[in-house]
Amino acid sequence: MILSYSIKTAFRGLTTHKSRSALTILGIVIGVAAIILVVSLGEGAQNLILGQIQGLGSKTIAVIPGREPTGPSDAAQIFSDSLKEKDLVALKKKENVPTLKNIMPVVFGGESASYQGETYRLTLFGGTDLMAEIFSLYPSEGVFISEDDVRGIGSVVVIGSKVKDELFGSSPALGEKIKIKDKSLRVIGVLPKKGQVSFFNFDEMAIVPYTTMQKYILGINYFHRFIVESENEALISRTVIDVNQTLRESHDITDPSKDDFFVQTQEDLVKSLGTITTALTMFLAAVAAISLIVGGIGIMNIMLVSVTERTKEIGLRLAVGARQRDILSQFLIEAVTLCFIGSLFGVAFGVGTAKFIGALTQWPISISLTATLIAIAAAAFIGIFFGYYPARKASRLDPIDALRYE
User: Fold this and answer.
1) Model confidence over 229-264: pLDDT tens digits?
2) Distance of alpha carbon 124 from its chain centroid, rounded?
3) Which of 197, 211, 247, 199 is nearest to 87 (CA)?
4) Using N-to-C axis directions, what is the helix angle for 369-395 and 266-309, rounded to 10°?
5) If DSSP codes are grouped into helix, strand and coil, which group holds residue 261?
6) pTM reported for the whole predicted model
């Protein structure tokens, strides 16, 4: 029995029970599609997150209070009050950080804003005029907060497009006063629809001078972040070293392991989040692969049923000279064929679903060729692995007993 005949016989066996074969294939389709869909969505999420991080610019460095978290138990460390005015003054000195171009202290929090009976929960961000440059925030109406507003603790605010719509509707907002925590703030600017930039949705945000937010809104004398801008990308490492040294001197820290702050570059953040999202995607893909195993068990079950149903046929072939390996190859080909057809439909279904979700949600879907090839290879392996036992059982049937089988 040559290979071509084995293939023809295998296909004839599959087409004899079309419904049964189709239902068996369905398990492989779901498994392959699930792997491709999970990996595609995962890579899309990773690209989106990393793109948002890079929106801060490659020359920016974040100085964050508290010890750098190394695990879930350290998460509370980031809410430290270790960054103070004296640190800001020290970092601004050219002799301490010669490569520093700009520095912006940052405070933020969730607050409710009200205007003539309308209330909206927003994110309040306290910064400086440098914020416009870092995030490319240029008001479509009015002006941005200025250095004078920061120095004078000005009662002014710049609002996002959604905040304007929620509080003012179609009425003009410029010059009007909104109330946040019993403090009246005059609207001096309205941002155009901006959407998500880095981790912030500026449409749902209001921006005030950090001095105003510290004194009137939060009642604190420390900062939640320093955003430092290096003179150029090549000097980032030097800037990080100088910032660390300056803050250690300001905090009287001699042992770096006792730091009550940490410095994070955009590259660090990209690497950290890239590792996390990749690990999460692989974990979800592994979970999705379980459905492939379930599909493989279904193939084994159907092949065992097929062997039982075709016992006389197998006995007849063995009696007229077919070798054990011919019977083995025939049933293995049937199992692999089921998986191969299932993987093709699974790829088509997975890619199509991923693109549909991307178009529906504007998610940046990335179809992974590697994941697709791995899914197909896994399906082929499943076919061989789960098809081998039924095929071996068929090939080892005794011809005489098989011919007598009822």
Assistant:
1) 888 777 888 888 999 999 999 999 888 888 888 888
2) 26
3) 247
4) 20
5) strand
6) 0.58
